[in-house]
Amino acid sequence: YRTPSGLRAKYFDNEGHVIDYAIAATGSHVELVSDEIANVPRFKLTYDVRSTDELAIDFAMAPPGTTQFKHYTGGIVHRVL
């Protein structure tokens, strides 16, 4: 959704987690970075369009109090026709 400060996203799951993200997009690269909250890990979800049939996805985490994100999981998805 659009706010005066830019694009935002909100993630909900069936375990009660809610994560608020700021979104930055440039060309074929989209990055969602969670808000900084004291004593809470941060998350970064990145999408990179590699071609019309290929998308790279990366999910990274940063421990509370740090800004250093480390790869957690990800992969490449392919369009199947």
Can you offer a commentary on this structure?
With 81 residues, the protein is mainly β. The protein is built from no helices and seven strands. It has strands spanning 2-3, 6-12, 18-26, 29-34, 42-51, 54-62, 70-78. It has a seven-stranded antiparallel beta sheet, with no helix packed on it. It is globular, with a radius of gyration of 14 Å. 4% of the residues are buried. The model has no long low-confidence stretch (mean pLDDT 96).
Brief account:
Helices cover about 0% and strands about 65% of the residues. The protein is built from no helices and seven strands.
**How much of the sequence is in beta strands?**
over 45%
Radius of gyration equals 14 Å
Question: Would you tell me the overall average pLDDT?
Answer: 96
Q: What's the count of strands?
A: 7
As residue ranges, the low-confidence spans are none
